[in-house]
């Protein structure tokens, strides 16, 4: 599913070189459930961005689903992301002026899917996260837990094989947070490869595989 070979990522900040990743080797199998933990500034978000194809390594090789994606064009990377990767973020990133249903529908519109098919898929997605009765609500009318459920529905609407969750419970109370983790684990149980970045040790411990990043390196 995922293979990273000797991944380095350096950033130039003024006259200083920041070494965010220092030779990451990592393999993740299809259907795995992985948590990633580590102190602030350790390289967790940089690693996630590279796996998500939102950033490219300074050096090294990234193979996703058997294809080397290290040096693809922006258009090729966008297509791969759209077809293979779903994202769930701490701050939801929903569009305020759109309803819950319209936010979920957006990836289908970008993919050029026909209207009738889109509506059917959105309806099923809302049912899957138990928010059919909130379809016409805008983000300002939803609770934090409901916002994250809509974000998950949007992330999964294209049926990606990989779901990346960056602090998905960071803005939620403990009850809503556990409901979100239960939902993510349900998706993993259906075969979706799940990677969760978290500062919460209790959430991290629920994964089948645990990674800790320190100073840009995986520390086991």
From TrEMBL:
A family per Pfam: ABC_tran
Gene Ontology molecular function: ATP binding
Domain ABC transporter: 2-220
CDD domains recorded: ABC_MJ0796_LolCDE_FtsE
InterPro entries tied to this protein: AAA+_ATPase (IPR003593), ABC_transporter-like_ATP-bd (IPR003439), ABC_transporter-like_CS (IPR017871), MacB-like_ATP-bd (IPR017911), P-loop_NTPase (IPR027417)
Keywords: ATP-binding, Nucleotide-binding, Transport
Keyword ATP-binding (UniProt): yes
Protein family per UniProt: Belongs to the ABC transporter superfamily.
PANTHER family in the cross-refs: ABC TRANSPORTER ATP-BINDING PROTEIN MG467-RELATED, LIPOPROTEIN-RELEASING SYSTEM ATP-BINDING PROTEIN LOLD
Identification of the protein by name: ABC transporter ATP-binding protein
Organism of this sequence: Methylomonas subterranea
């Amino acid at each position: 599913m995922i293979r990273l070979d000797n991944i380095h990522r350096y950033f130039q900040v003024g006259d200083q070189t920041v070494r965010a990743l220092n030779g990451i080797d990592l393999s993740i199998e299809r259907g795995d459930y992985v948590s990633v933990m580590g102190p602030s500034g350790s390289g967790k978000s940089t690693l996630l961005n590279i796996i998500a194809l939102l950033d490219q390594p300074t050096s090294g090789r990234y193979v996703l689903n058997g294809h080397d994606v290290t040096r693809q064009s922006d258009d090729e990377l966008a297509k791969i992301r759209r077809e293979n990767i779903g994202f769930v973020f701490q701050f939801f990133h929903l569009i305020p002026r759109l309803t819950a249903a319209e936010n979920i529908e957006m990836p289908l519109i970008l993919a050029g899917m026909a209207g009738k098919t889109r509506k059917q898929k959105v309806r099923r997605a809302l049912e899957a996260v138990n928010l059919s009765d909130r379809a016409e609500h805008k983000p300002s009318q939803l609770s934090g837990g409901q916002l994250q459920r809509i974000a998950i529905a949007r992330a999964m609407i294209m049926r990606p094989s990989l779901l990346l969750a960056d602090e998905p419970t960071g803005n939620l109370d403990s009850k809503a947070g556990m409901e979100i983790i239960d939902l993510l684990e349900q998706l993993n149980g259906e075969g979706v490869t799940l990677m969760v970045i978290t500062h919460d040790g209790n959430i991290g411990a629920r994964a089948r595989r645990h990674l800790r990043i320190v100073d840009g390196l995986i520390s086991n």
